[in-house]
Amino acid sequence: MKKSRRKFSASFKAKVSIEALKEQSSLQELAAKFELHPTQISSWKREFLENADLAFGSKPEKEDSDSGTGPLYNKIGQLQVENDFLKKALGK
């Protein structure tokens, strides 16, 4: 029977990385505790440190993406009103 691949959540990876950063126990002890390979813990720790600056960086604003669609919706509404007006004018 084929063994399925385990998937780990971001919170679990962060938890393991923080434990590795504390250096209160060795990688071998952490590997036994969390049932992981020590190399995997090292790679998660390295990735955590490389992306640590993102935790305090500016958050992406969702308003920027919405501001581009607002004028488009306005234009669609205007064209719809003009189209309806022209249909009524041609019907007479």
TrEMBL record:
<protein>
    <submittedName>
        <fullName>Transposase</fullName>
    </submittedName>
</protein>
<dbReference type="InterPro" id="IPR010921">
    <property type="entry name" value="Trp_repressor/repl_initiator"/>
</dbReference>
<dbReference type="InterPro" id="IPR036388">
    <property type="entry name" value="WH-like_DNA-bd_sf"/>
</dbReference>
<dbReference type="InterPro" id="IPR002514">
    <property type="entry name" value="Transposase_8"/>
</dbReference>
<dbReference type="Pfam" id="PF01527">
    <property type="entry name" value="HTH_Tnp_1"/>
</dbReference>
